[in-house]
Batch of 2 targets.
Target 1
Amino acid sequence: MITSERMAAVDRNAEALGVPRKQLMESSGNAVARAIHRLADPEASVAVVAGRGNNGGDALVAARFLAEYDVTVHLLGRPETIATDIARENWAALEAAEYDTETVTDSADLALGDPDVVVDAMLGTGVTGALREPEATAATAINRTDATVVAVDVPSGVDADTGDSTGVAVDADSVVTFHDDKPGLASVDADVTVAEIGIPEAAERFTGPGDLLALGRPEQSHKGDFGEVLVVGGGPYTGAPALTARAALRAGADLVRVACPESIAREVQSYSESLILRPYHGDRLAAANVDPVLDLAADHDTVVIGPGLGSHEETLAAVSDILEAYEGTAVVDADALQVVPAVETDATLICTPHQGELRKMGGETDEDWRTRTDLVVEFAAELGHVLLVKGAYDVIGDGGEHRVNRTGNPGMTVGGTGDVLAGAAGALACVLAPFEAAAVAAYANGRAGDAAVEDSGHGLVAPDLIDRLPAALWEGDE
Ligand SMILES: NC(=O)C1=CN([C@@H]2O[C@H](COP(=O)(O)OP(=O)(O)OC[C@H]3O[C@@H](n4cnc5c(N)ncnc54)[C@H](O)[C@@H]3O)[C@@H](O)[C@H]2O)[C@@H](O)CC1
Ligand SMILES: [K+]
């Protein structure tokens, strides 16, 4: 099963892998035509009803694969209003080759006749709300025919994710859907065929630019759309929590506060004036700080706990107590990771170990790490949390899904890059589901590292990544 949002991401990733949308449209149209070959005898009459989006584009392609049939293509709307280049190109191809085409600008003008087959390609995953005109009238007209109705991707008017329809929807006999089944089709009373359209498996397995689509564009978001992050770190180390907090800010968080021992507050502040500190009593996290930190945590959208905390027994016990009582979303990094397996919590944790830390948590690693994503998925399931295991290939797993990130470079083994990643994950977890936040953070962090190496060669330091996070998250790669 794949949601519309994930489908759009995978489609974008396929494009980045060298398989552009127009190629996928060709495969989709071909698959629809093959379904018609199975359903109808040669010379049967086929009415293709195409909308102006890519769903319609699929059917415009299908028309070219139906030479044995008597095909008429009805385009709903003027050709100039076709929404995408690739659909428009396929319309132009039909026109140039003098296919039997009609444009319908007024719903009253739709003359379907009495076809043997109707191809419903008005709307697919791009539908929002109830069908408007001329689509609504066309849906009623389609439902009134005695034809076998073949819907492209989803019956028009049906929401691919929920199966809901807010008004009239096409009553299809059969549905040819692409790449993977859609959740909304479960409630549709029709034969559903899933057609492979040549999307490489890597477009789903590897993070790519499509994974960033869920973030939206910076101009669409406003201050307050992201969220507030609390970094709980520092003690024996002072640089780590500062890096984490600065990374969270650059990854979009509206506000980041650092809870650290008062003994190091001045030094943490010295890294950046923009950091807001909430110092707690003492020189390392300990039992007395648990309640004040929990109070602070309750006022934030996410918490990042671990960077620079050290592994003093008292500190680890305090981390356990905090995680047990906390109920929100937390990124757990560095020394704090080792307490996670024994912690019982209602919190949603994103754990970011490297392989050494993973072993310390009781997880299994393998030399051939790339092919052993199952180890991460299984251990994540055992923990009940999201795992982001850092390495040459980062593996992100949540017990069900997994994704592999291959951005980044050997220069990133330098200290502090993990702190940056944890901060980015904390910020992104304010706006994305935990698994997505972890995947996008890994992708962007690696991309920032790649950009840094490209700009200045090797000799990378962690702050180089921080400066490049906004571009890595919000700028296209074409
Ligand atoms: N990876 C993918 O996502 C792929 C998608 N493909 C096809 O592309 C389709 C999605 O294409 P699009 O994103 O262009 O979307 P659609 O073709 O589903 O619809 C977009 C158009 O419909 C209009 N519209 C939206 N809601 C409406 C309503 N309630 N009443 C009337 N008009 C409405 C929009 O203004 C827009 O012009 C899929 O369903 C599938 O058929 C395939 O070509 C292959 C790959
Ligand atoms: K459709």
Target 2
Amino acid sequence: MDHCLVTRKRGDMVRCDGVFPPETTFRELLVTENSNVAIRVSGLGKMYRMYSRPSDLLWELLLRKTRHREHWALRDINFEVGKGEVVGVIGRNGAGKTTLLRIIAGTLDQTKGTVDVKGRVSAIMVLGTGFNMDLSGRENILLGGLVLGMTHDEIAAKTDDIVSFSGLQDFIDSPCREYSSGMVARLAFSIAVSVDPDILIVDEALSTGDMIFNAKSYARMREIAKSGATVLFVTHSLQQIYDLCDKAILLERGGVAAVGEPRTVGYLYEQKVHEEMAALNQTNAPVLQIGNWVSNESRKAEIVNVDVFSVTKTERTSRFKDGDEYLIRIAVKAYESVRSVSIGYDIRTQTGVQVYGFSTSNAGVEENLVAGETKEFTFWLRPSLNNGTYFLNVGIAENISDTDHSNHYSMMHFIGDSVTIEGITDSVFPGVSNMRGEFQKSKVMADERSLDK
Ligand SMILES: Nc1ncnc2c1ncn2[C@@H]1O[C@H](COP(=O)(O)OP(=O)(O)OP(=O)(O)O)[C@@H](O)[C@H]1O
């Protein structure tokens, strides 16, 4: 796997525009505005020509007759990234994430539209060229450093730090072809962050590193962001999006499906994935695994009140004490009569990890709503959360399955973070939920055969 390091000089405003621009040329613009925008993408499109056979390209050139079909990997992409923002790009395989990042980094030309980038870009691409796999890690540091615009002296001064950050001291003089893909990603990341970039672009390089390196990389990315630099990265992990980002971009089949607050975009992504899986009939996942931050497009019904009540203390509360009993009450006002609805909730950590969810459909109950009525739904639970902050999301969905055998719901109203809950426990344990584990006994084993007994 090749990794690519790219740089543009500090202070440059680089722009590429027009249809079918010449290969790898970037025209510099005079910066006429003093804006806080680090990256501006306008009307961006990328088309690949697809040939059924390699010889079709030759025939096309010779006969001047089209023998390809067009495949638009990106269509009409528009967004801005502010200076110092950390932005995560998510989307299914083939959505266009890598293509987008490569165009912004300047390693790939677009077919349409413009990309304005202000500042020195340092990019780590999973695909592309740049690392010479026959050279050693140390030689690639030199090569990468030069590509990033450093002088020999600067690289020499930084090499020890780069090697130490990568944790590859024992392998640094071996050829990179002997490295695992994770090791190459580590080295590429270490080089890219060593130049104090204005804009750091990371395409899934972190997904190949091990846990310890990933933790170090996140910390470094946070530092880079804190220093005022802009970070744009691709990930398949919503947790990383919730953890690190100020903003998320969801790409779908080459278009921007959503840009905005990370959890809003993350939930929308989950909802789309869930809907697709449900359409494929491959899941019976409870309805509240899907959701939107606040969504009420149907206007058929609305959640008008949510409260949490402590049965143990007989009072309204926003605390879940480990082992106590609670009621979650959700009041719904119907504007239309709707049959077969499911009402429910889920509880998530601050980083969006779903801890638990439950709904009337999980309980095997289908409810009906009558136009004009307000109905309250009460759920009992005995939570066992670790100390910390959690969010209660609530939703109401209509069963739109056309058979009795599938569970396909359409969300009518969803409120993310409707109540912020404080988890409280006296126990000390790692993780989110107390599973009531107990130590039973220890015994000295006579020999390994006793393991079978
Ligand atoms: N060199 C190429 N020639 C033709 N089509 C390409 C080329 N590179 C990418 N594509 C197509 O462009 C689309 C977007 O690809 P891209 O690699 O950007 O997706 P992605 O979102 O990064 O996917 P993944 O999550 O799998 O990495 C896909 O349909 C892909 O097949």
